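User: Can you help me understand a structure? I only have the sequence.
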Amino acid sequence: MYMDTILLFLGLLLSFIMAINIGGNDAANPTSTAVGSGALSLRRALILFAIFVILGALLQGYMVIKTIGRGIVPEIDILGAFIIVLSANIWIFFATMRGMAISTTHSIVAAVIGYGIAQYFLEINLGVLTTIFISWITSPLLSALLSFFLYKLSYFLIRKYSLKSEKILRILVIFTLLFSAYSFGANDVANATGVYITIACKLGQIPDFNAMILLSIYGAIGIIIGGYILGPKVIRTLAFRITRLDLLMALAAGLANATTVYLFTTLPYFIFGYGLPISTSYVAVGSILGVGGAKSSINMKITAKLISYWIMTIPFNIILTFALYKLFTIFSIF
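Assistant: Let's start by predicting it. Here is the structure, written out as C-alpha cells:
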C-alpha cells in the first residue's frame, strides 16, 4: 500500500509533465489560424487559449476522461498508469522538440492499448476501441471537407454581397480561437489525466464526478504552462509552414476545427455515454489542409513529414508501453 501511494504520486507528477507536453504540442491547434493570419500576436493568442482551455476542461472535460480511464480496458492499475503516461510523454516530447504536431490522443490511447495487451489481452473493449479508431479517420476528413466548403462559401458570399471587412473577419477569427480552445480543453485534458480516474477513486475514495473535475483542473494548468513554454515551435509550423493563411482562410479553418472537435466530444457522450478522444492535432491540420486545398496552396514537403510522424505514433507507443510494463512486472521493480 505504501509503495502504491509512492507510485501514484510519481505517476501524478508524470501526468502533470504529460499535460505540459500536451500543451506544448497541441496549443497550436486552436491558435495557429489566428497567429498565421495575423489576427493576433502569438502572446495574445496564448492568453486567450489559456482562459478558454480552463473553461472547456472544467465544464466538459469529464466527458472524455471517462472514456480514457475506463472505456478501453476494464481497469488501469497504478503501475499501468505510470507506464502509460511515461511512454506517451517520451514520444510527445520527442515530436514537440522537432516542431511536429503529432496526436497526443493517439499517443495516450496507443499506450493504453499497449498496457491492455500486456495486462488483459482478450478483455480490451473492442467496441469502444473501434469507435475511437473510426473517429480518428473521420474527424480530420470532416474537418478538411468542412473548412474547404466554408472557405468556398465565404468567398462566394463576400464577392456577391461585398461583405469583406478586415475588422469583422479578424473578430470572427478570434472567436473561432475561443471556441476551438474551449473544445480542445474539453477533449484533450483526458489525455493527461484520464488514466487516473480509477486510481483516484480506489485510493482516495473520491466519487467519480468529483475526481474528474479535480483531474480536469490539474491537467488544464499543465496544458497552459506547456503552451507558453513549449508551444511556439509547433504553433509556427501549423501557422506558417503548411500554407499561407489569410483572414478568410483562417476563419474557415478555425471554425471547421472548433466545430469538429466539439461535435466529437459532445454528441457521442449524449448518444453512447462517453465522449470520443479524437486527435485535435489531426483535426487542426485537416482544417488547414482543407483551406490550403481550396486555394491550391499546400506545402507537400512539411505535410508529408507530419504524416510520417502520425504513422509512427501508434506502433511506437504500443510497443514501448508493452515492453516497459512487462519489464517492470517481470523484474518486480515495484
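Now, to help you interpret it: The mean pLDDT is 85. The chain has 13 helices and no strands. Let me know which part you'd like to focus on.
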